[in-house]
Amino acid sequence: MKQVPIGVSARHIHLSAEHVEALFGPGYQLKPMKPLSQPGQFAAEETVAVIGPKGRFDKVRILGPARSRTQLEISRTDSYVLGVQPPVRESGDIAGSPGIELEGPAGRVTIEEGVIIAARHIHFHTSEAAAWGIADKQKLRVRVRGERPLIFEDVIARVHDTFALDMHIDTDEANAAGVKTGDLAEILDADN
Which cofactors (predicted)? Predict the structure, then answer.
């Protein structure tokens, strides 16, 4: 049985270094609050407000370190509150996605694109993927056994030497199945 720990991903934002400075001040550096499941990644102490055409969320957690481009990852439910229609995409694929306004203690920024719903995926270290016969970008079927068990299809395998084994789903998906961070999922099969 190929079991994978589940990581439930609440709304969060990745900021470019330029936007960190625009929102928090010149030379500002994010302060790590706690490490995440992926090596070198962290939840920062800092948060920002995100403001859409219909609504806003205050205190959206920033994940670090800074990236080359700013990206807001939300759930479908969040998109209704904000009044935006983001596509379901892999992290980093933001071309043509909606923009949003960001507010920090030192200023405001409007991004022209960068709001997505993250496609569900599993991070594999290269050695784990090889041992299980899984290739990067392969689509998997995965069973979760929460209060309301279900099978997720089209779970994208993301394979890299720096990744640690973890399945990432958003809060809508976790709530639908009744699962939480730390629960286990089982890989059933893969599309070849």
Answer: Zn(2+)
pLDDT tens digits for range 94-113: 999 999 999 999 999 999 99
Same domain, 77 and 172: no
Q: Are residues 105 and 176 in the same domain?
A: no
Quick one: tokens of 26? 């010149």
**Two structure tokens written together for 122:** 């599993």
Between strands 184-191 and 12-14, the pairing is unpaired
Task: Check whether residue 34 and residue 73 sit in a common domain.
Answer: yes
Looking at residue 115, its amino acid is V
In a domain, 71, yes or no: yes
Length of the chain: 192
Residue 172 has a CB neighbour count (10 Å cut-off) of 14
> Bridge-partner residues for 5, per DSSP?
184
Cβ neighbours for 53, distance < 8 A, ≥ 6 positions apart: 82, 83, 84
**Radius of gyration over alpha carbons of the chain, in Å?**
17
pLDDT for 123-167, tens place per residue? Answer: 999 999 999 999 999 999 999 998 999 999 999 999 999 999 999
Distance, in Å, from the CA atom of 15 to the CA atom of 172, rounded to the nearest integer, reads 23
Other Cβ atoms less than 10 A from the Cβ of 35: the count is 11
